[in-house]
Each structure stands twice: as structure tokens, then as C-alpha cells.
Amino acid sequence: MTTASLLDHAAQRPVLSCDIFDTVVRRTLARPEDVFLAVGARLRRLITCTPEDFALHRQTAERAAREIATRQGHDEVRLAEIYEWLASCGIVTDPEQAARVEFHVECDICVPIETVRSAVMAHPCAVFASDTQLPGPWLQALLERCGYGPARRVFSSADLRLSKHTGRLFPAMLAALARPASDILHIGDNPVSDVERPRAHGIAARLLPRDRPAAGGFDDCHFVTRLAVSHASARPSRSHGPEHVGAMLARIATPLLIGFALFIIAQARARGISRLYFLARDGHLPMAVVANLLAASGETEAFALQYLDVSRASMADIDPARSYLQRLGFLRPGLRMVIDLGWRGSIQASLQEIAGDGADIFGCYVGLWADALRPAINPGNAAGYLFNFGAPQSMARQVREFYVVLELIFSAPHGTVLGYMAEAIEPARAIEEAPGGPLRRAVFAALEADCLDTVEALGRMIANDWPEGIESASALAPLAQALMRPTRAVLAAVNSVPFIHDADGAALLPAVNPLPLHEAILAPRRSLKRLQNAPWRSGAVRAALPSFMPSIDFATLTRALRRLGIEV
């Protein structure tokens, strides 16, 4: 039903009755049960289990309390009863406070559905009816927060102990309003509770169906990963242009960016380092996330964040590089941290050589390959989040399969640093010409905006009580799932972003150069070797296979060929 249609139908009745959740407000999480993860995270001081376990226990408690309420002849269970049950099991230490925390989380994750809000606010007599465990006054407060005005009349199944689902709430509503059924139009998203049941009592009803986004598949992951994926999945879909690609990359990469940012902060705290230098270009987005987390926790003054325009090419010319570093204060003595994607710490080694005091420079990386280990870069002055000097090997091997896509995601909107202009000692960045340059910048603008939106939204959900860290495998899980066996849609999205400079720095190249069919037929072994050495192996395999074949990785492909008797 369109807004105009809703207005037209509502104008024909003196009273407009509205369901609440998924009708006039929506949650910024894909699944209602994901709310309990946020509640568990915010209740960490009031529960005796992890947030992940709390989400499970909260669902168990609702079922148990509902069974008791049903035996007593009630249609609905109350939130207080659920938390009293949890307290009796030793899960919650303060049930009254914990119930209020759940309500505050609901307030923080609910936003109005604007098209419906405009229609409701235009109606002279709008009331609300909801099947919920929340008491009516709390629902009134939530509606007011979402812009539906104060003192709205609310019929809560928890208050009445009667539900829309059984149909028993509607006679109670009619009696309370002292209105005939013919005066009322009810709208909602449930075909039974919001259409069949009111019509059975003579109330006109209209269905407002809502899409239910999927956000499963990560139930064994850290609660931050699950909340980040759920929030991104609930975000309204973008167009199929650069914004769509940026949003897709943000959905799978934001947990890793949050995990890495928490790792950076933890390493800095543990080592007493307050000067953090984020290296171009891979440090652009981590710096934005770290700044957000520090601002949310009130620690902005404790750390000095600086973006450092450096590259392997710019560090080769030592005198201009030293002048640039001197001007930015990097060469000032004292403990410093440099932050980069990885993989071998080569820029850190160059910085140590120029600074002449390598012991005071610590490198913090997403990952360090095994061959990064050398006297200049070692466990004493460098650490990797996903893998540290190749360990654990399983994680390093996994990232090898798609490391080039990580380089894409961590790339900044600007071009690579070519050197330094002599007069002002300002960095000279490569100019990325159209059409590739503007497209790339648009993708990264959307990626950064969506990533930071999720970080800020999660901060509100958990009252900015961020954990000290996230297990690296959990943070990587959404990215690894998408890239180890990519669909053609994922391949097309990633490959639409030109980001790799060729040898002379002038051109931008995609992540995967498709293998021509004639080459695969005429030179199968050479073709397999090419796929094996591709920087995104699974993406290269997906691009080489016909569209009707399933998504497989390189190892699966080679095993399949061997079973067919083809030596590889």
C-alpha cells in the first residue's frame, strides 16, 4: 500500500489503529532476536554469561515464561516476568534494571518508517496496538522518540494480557475507545494478527507487508560481528552503482575494520604509545574507525592520530622524505606506532632507517607474512592482527586466497603517494583520471560512510561499551565467506572497482583479469598455474567458470579435475 493509498483509506475512518513494530517503526537490525545480542552486550555488568550466551538464554526465558502465562490463561507474557525467570536461573543479577536496559536498546535501534509516519501524523485520531512484552507507557515513550508525538494511546498485549494474534485484543480496544468497529481502520504487517483477526471483529484492515532481510550464517561469531552484519543487512538497499558496491564491501568488511581498530587501541595502551601514525593509503579507513571509537569512549585526548602520506616509492628518495617526516613531527623522539595493512613491514623498515631510532617505532598490521621476519621487523617491534609473521598458518593461508581484495578495501579515496614537492615539502599524489578515478572514489566514499554508520549504530546499541578485542577469525568471517566462494554478483561488484596501479602508475586495473576460454582449452596446465598465482584465486576461478557452475575455490577445482583424470 502506498502512502497516498494509506492516507485515502485512513481518511475514510474516524480512527486509525496501527501495529507498531515493522509497521510504524523498524529495527535497524535484520532479525528481532539480534536485539538480544545488543542487550547482552550492554548488560555485561549485570549478567553471569557472555552476550552471545545471553541472547540464547533470553529466548529460552521468553518461551518458559510464555508457557507459564499461557497456563494461567493469558495471551501474552510480560518483560518483567521474563527477567524474573532469568534471575531465578542465576543469569541476571538485577532483573528490574535489566528489563529497562532491553527497553533502552529497543529505543536506540528503532527508527520511524517515514512514509507511514507522515500518514499517521496527518490523521486526527491515531492509536497503536502491539503484540509485545513491553508495557504501554514504554511503547508510548518509544513512539515519541521516533517522532510520533506525545501521549499516543497504546494498547499493549502485555498490559491487557490479550493479543492481536488470538483476536482477543480487538474487542478490548473497541470497548476502551467506545467506538463501533466500522469507525476503525487497522494497519499492520502480519496477515493473521493485523488482517484476519480485526476483520473477524468487523474492523477494516489493510496489510503493509515488509521485507525481512536475512542476516544469518555467523551465529558462532563474536557479538560485534553478528551485530555489524545484522545492522548492514537491515540497511535499505542502495542502487546498483558505486554506492551499491561500497555498501556491499562495507557489509562484509566492517567487522574486520572494527576488530583491527580495537587491536590498534589495545596494542597502543599495552605499550604506552600515544602517537599513532596511519600510513597512506591503507591507514585511511582504520584511522576513521579508531577516531570514532576513541571519541565515543572519551579518549580522544589520550592519543594523537596523524595520517602519514608515505609509500615505498616516496621513501626511496630519502632527503625529501626526511624533510616531510620532520615537518609532520614524526621524527620527534619517543614511542610511535605506525599502522598499515601489511604484509612485510617494508615502509616501517624505511621509516626506522630515516628516523635512526627503530626501537621507538612499533608497527601494527592487519597481517604479517612469515617472510616479514627479519632483524629490522620482528616480534619486538611489530604485530599482526589476523596473523603474526605467518602464524597461525591457517589464517595466513586463508588470507593468501584473497589478499588483493583486502588491499582494495583498505585503499584510500586518493591516489598513491609519488613523492614530495620540494618547495613546500607537501606530498604529491597520483592523479587517477576518469573514468576509473571518480568511480573508485565514489565506491570508497560509500564504503567509508556505511562502515562508520555501522560503527556509530553499534556504539549506540551497546552504550559504547566496546570489548577490548574481537577474535580475528570472527572478525574476518563475513569477508572470508564472501571471498572464498564468491558468487558472480560479488565478483562483478569487486571487479567493477579499478584500484591497482600498473607499473608506471598511470592506469587502474581490476582485481581479476578473466581467463580467456580459448587459453583454458588450449593450455589447461598453464591456465591452472595462472589461476593458482592469482591474487584473488577464488575470484579468478569464478571468473573462469561458466555462470551456471557453482561457486568453488581453487582447491575444489583441482580436486574435481583430478577425479576426472586430468593431471594438475
Question: How would you describe this structure to a colleague?
Answer:
This protein has 568 residues and is of the alpha/beta class. The chain has 3 domains: 3-207, 3-Layer(aba) Sandwich (Rossmann fold), CATH 3.40.50; 245-473, no CATH class; 512-568, no CATH class. The strands form 5 sheets. The protein has a 5-stranded parallel sheet, sandwiched between helices. Helix 2 (35-42) packs across helix 5. The protein is globular. The termini are far apart. The model has no long low-confidence stretch (mean pLDDT 90).
Fold blueprint:
Blueprint: H1 3-11, E1 15-18, E2 25-27, H2 35-42, H3 51-71, H4 79-88, H5 95-109, E3 110-112, H6 114-122, E4 126-130, H7 136-145, E5 154-156, H8 157-160, H9 169-177, E6 184-188, H10 192-200, E7 204-207, H11 223-234, H12 242-271, E8 275-279, H13 284-297, E9 304-308, H14 312-316, H15 318-328, E10 336-340, H16 346-355, E11 361-367, E12 382-387, H17 393-400, H18 403-409, E13 417-421, E14 426-429, H19 436-461, H20 472-484, H21 488-495, E15 500-501, E16 508-509, H22 517-522, H23 524-532, H24 537-544, H25 554-563
Parallel strand pairs: 1-4, 1-6, 4-5, 6-7, 8-9, 8-10, 10-11, 11-12
Antiparallel strand pairs: 2-3, 13-14, 15-16
Helix pairs in contact: 1-6, 2-3, 2-5, 3-4, 4-5, 11-12, 11-19, 12-13, 12-19, 12-20, 13-19
